[in-house]
Amino acid sequence: DSIFPLFIATGLPPGVGGLLLASILAATLTTLAANLNATATALTTDFYVRFRRGAGSDAKTVACGKGLTVACGGIALGLALLFAHADIQSMQETFYKFLGVLTSGVTGLFLLGMFAPRVSGTAAILGLIVNYAVCFTLAFCPLPWKPHLMLYGVAGLSACLITALLASAVWPNRKSTAGWVWSRRAAGKQEDPHAG
User: Fold this and answer.
1) Fewest CB within 10 angstroms: 61, 150, 174, 181, which?
2) Which residues contact 64 (CB under 8 A, 6 or more apart)?
3) What is the pTM of this model?
């Protein structure tokens, strides 16, 4: 992980290293700002607006969003300090491990929602639980043999899809999904806008 900072310090002429470092920090700041904004907006609209009592004003909603932005920033800062003092060999490997563990379940739910009309909410949640059980076991439990860390997400995603599809035999979706789920039949019925 230290090869790039070493190159900046020793391989670049004076001034260029500072410009490169400033551009990296600026790119990081814009990414963090967008992530904090998106997280706070999702939490505000999905939880605060949905479950608040009474009508509520826009000013209160904005204040809640700002407070959640500060809270998410504080959590991110705390995690950064925790990682800075942890015994981590490679930050890139740790990033890929957490990426596989945390995002494979969301990917599984998305794929089930788009392509599996028979899967109910109960079956999807069961698949999500099994996904996280598999991912956390692979990532954090001592096992005699572990796959490569890039495969944690693949294993969790596979577990999510298989579990949800099998559970849908017990708890099938009884609601109509017409227009909500992608299928070849639905795609074939769409009119070609270029057809004359």
Assistant:
1) 174
2) 44, 48
3) 0.64
Phi, psi angles (nearest 5°) of residue 125: -65, -40
Q: What is the Cα–Cα distance from 67 to 40, expressed in whole angstroms?
A: 8
Q: pLDDT band at residue 173, thresholds of 50, 70 and 90?
A: confident
DSSP3 helix / strand / coil % (the chain, rounded to 5): 75, 0, 25
Cβ density class 68-103: b for 16+ within 10 Å, e for less: bbeebbeeeeeeeeeeeeeeeeeeeebebbbebbee
Average pLDDT rounded to a whole number, residues 109-117: 84
Nearest to 183 by CA among 110, 109, 112, 114: 114
In this structure, are residues 171 and 120 in contact, taking their beta carbons and an 8 Å threshold?
A: yes
